[in-house]
Amino acid sequence: MIDLLTIFVLAVFVGFEVVSKVSTILHTPLMSGANAIHGVILVGAILITGSAESTLQLVLGLLAVFLATVNVVGGFVVTDRMLEMFKR
Amino acid sequence: MIVQLMYLVAALCFILALKGLSSPKHARYGNFIGAFGMLVGVVTAYVHGVVHNGLWILVAVALGVAVGIPAARSVKMTAIPQMVALFNGVGGAAAALVALAEFFAVRDTTVLFRLATVLTVLIGSVSFSGSVVTFLKLQELMTTRPVLLPAGQQLAIAAGVSSVALCALTMAVPNGFLLWSLAAVGLALGVLFVLPVGGADVPIAISLLNAFTGLAVAASGYVLTNTLLIVAGTLVGASGTILTRLMAQAMGRSLTNILFGAFKATTATAHQEEQRTVKSGTVEDVAILLGYANNVVVVPGYGLAVAQAQHAVRELVSQLEKRGVAVSYGIHPVAGRMPGHMNVLLAEADVPYEQLKELDDVNPGITSVDVAVVVGANDVVNPGARDEPASPIYGMPIFDVDRAKSVVFMKRSMRPGFAGVDNELLYNPKTTLLFGDAKDSLTKLLAAVKQL
C-alpha cells in the first residue's frame, strides 16, 4: 500500500511540474487532453468486467466500459482537432 | 512483470502527451503519443486481465467508439466547453461504477481499500452530476444565471455532512446499500454545488470538475491496485487544480467566493451614470482611425464567438497588416467559456498563434498602442476592476486599454456585461463606440478600410 502512496506522491509532483509548463494558448487542449487521459478508467473497467462474477457486476462493468470508451476516443479526437488548428 | 512494464510505458506516454503541450509545435504529436499510451494500456488490460465476458467488453467498446467519434468530430469549437464537461461527467461516472463493481467482488477488505472505494464513488458521482448540470447550463438547456434554491446552502451542507457520515459508515460496515446511498448523495451534492455557479464562473466549475474526475480515477487506482490509474488520474488532478487556480486568479476572486458567494451584483450604483454622454462613431471614422494607425491591439470576448465573427476579425486584421499596421490580439484568461477557449476559436479562424498575447505581454506597452479595439468583451477591459474598490469585479486583472491612445468599443447595445457592472471606459473621451452586431460591423469596417 505504501508503494502506491509513493507512486501517487511522485505523480503529484510530476503532474504539477509538467502542467505548469503548458503554454497558456493551449489551456483548452490541455483540459480536453487531460480529459482523454482520465478515460484510462477504461483499463479499470475492462479488468473489473473481465473478472465479473455476478450479473450486477457485469452490468456495472459494461456500463463503465462504454462510458470510459466514449471518454477516451472523444477526448483524443477533439484534442487532435484543436491542435491541428494550432499547427499553422 | 511484463504487464507492469506495459503500464509504465502507458504512464510515460501520458506524461509526454502533457509535456508536448508546452509548445503548439509539438502539441499534436504529443496527443498521438498519449493516444498510443492509452492503446497500450487498454490492450494490456484486455489481454492480461480478461478471464471471461471478453466479447461483451468488445461490444461495449465498439458502442463507445460509435458514440464518441462522431460526437467529437461534429462538435463546434464554440461548444467545446460543453463537450469537455460531458466527458468529465462520463469519466467520473465510469470511475464510480468501477468502484461499485469492485466492492461487490471483494469479500475480505482492508480499511484503505474501503477508504479508496468510498472516495471513488463519492467524487465520481459528484463529478458526474455536476458535469451534467454544467453541460445543461453551457448548452443553454437551462438558465445560465446562478440558481439559488430556497435553503440551498443548508441543503448543500446537509448533503455534505451526510456524505461524510455515509463514507465513515460504509468503511465501518461494508454494505452494498450504504454504498448505493453514498452514490445517490454524491449525485445530489454535485447538483447543489454547480447550480449556484453563474454563467461567467462556469470555466471555474469545469476546471474543478476536471480535477475531481482525475482524483476519482486516481482513487480507483487504489481500489484496483493499478499503478497506471493512479498516475494518470493524478496527472489530470494536477492539471485541473492548476487551471482552477489560474481561473480564480484571472477573476481576481478566491475559489470559495466563486463557489459559495453567488454574485451579489451591485447594479444599484450604476443607474445615476446613464445620462452621461458617449461618443459613437461611424464605420468610416473607425476605418480611418485603424487604417492610419501604427499599432493596434484587438481584445476579443465571448461576444465575438456568439456573433460568429472570428473570421471577420481575422480578415480585417489581415487587411490592416497589408497596410503596414502592426496588430496583435489581447486574450484574457477568462475570454470564452473555459480556460484558453478564445485561443482555440481564433486558431480555428486561422489566426497565427504568435499574434495571441496575454495580459502581461500587452499591458506594459499599452501606452504606445494607437488603437485598442474591443470586440464582444466588456468586463475584461473595465477600469473599475482596477480603480474602484466598490466594484463587484474589483481585483480582476484587466487589459488597461483606457491607457492606449484611443479605444474603439464595438457593442451591440449599452447593456452591461456578464457581471452586470457599468463600464467607465464607455464614457472615456478617448473611446469611440461602434454600435451593431460584431460580425456586421467588422465586415463593413473591412470594406471601408479597403476603400482608404
From TrEMBL, chain A:
Any keyword Glycoprotein? Answer: no
Q: Where in the cell is it found?
A: Cell inner membrane
A GO biological process this protein is involved in? NADPH regeneration
Tell me the enzyme class: translocase
Q: Name one GO cellular component term.
A: plasma membrane
GO MF, one term, reads:
proton-translocating NAD(P)+ transhydrogenase activity
Keyword terms of this UniProt record? Cell inner membrane, Cell membrane, Membrane, NAD, NADP, Translocase, Transmembrane, Transmembrane helix
Segments traversing the membrane: 30-49, 56-78
Q: Which domain of life is it from?
A: Bacteria
Membrane topology per the entry is:
Multi-pass membrane protein
Q: Which reaction does it catalyse?
A: NAD(+) + NADPH + H(+)(in) = NADH + NADP(+) + H(+)(out)
Every NAD(P) transhydrogenase alpha subunit C-terminal domain range: 5-88
Which EC numbers characterise this protein's activity in its record?
7.1.1.1
Annotated function = The transhydrogenation between NADH and NADP is coupled to respiration and ATP hydrolysis and functions as a proton pump across the membrane.
Q: What is this protein called?
A: proton-translocating NAD(P)(+) transhydrogenase
- Origin organism is Lentzea jiangxiensis
The organism's lineage is: Bacteria, Bacillati, Actinomycetota, Actinomycetes, Pseudonocardiales
UniProtKB/TrEMBL annotation, chain B:
Domain of life of the native organism: Bacteria
* Reaction catalyzed: NAD(+) + NADPH + H(+)(in) = NADH + NADP(+) + H(+)(out)
User: Where does it reside?
Assistant: Cell inner membrane
What SUPFAM superfamilies does UniProt report for this protein, alphabetically? DHS-like NAD/FAD-binding domain
- Indicate whether NADP appears among the record's keywords: yes
Signal peptide span: none
Its placement in the membrane is given as: Multi-pass membrane protein
Q: What is its EC number?
A: 7.1.1.1
Gene Ontology MF, one: proton-translocating NAD(P)+ transhydrogenase activity
Sorted alphabetically, the Gene Ontology cellular component annotations on this record are:
plasma membrane
TM region positions: 6-22, 29-48, 54-72, 84-105, 111-136, 177-195, 202-222, 228-248
- What are the entry keywords? Cell inner membrane, Cell membrane, Membrane, NAD, NADP, Translocase, Transmembrane, Transmembrane helix
Task: Report the protein's function.
Answer: The transhydrogenation between NADH and NADP is coupled to respiration and ATP hydrolysis and functions as a proton pump across the membrane.
Protein name as catalogued: NAD(P) transhydrogenase subunit beta
- Origin organism of this chain? Lentzea jiangxiensis
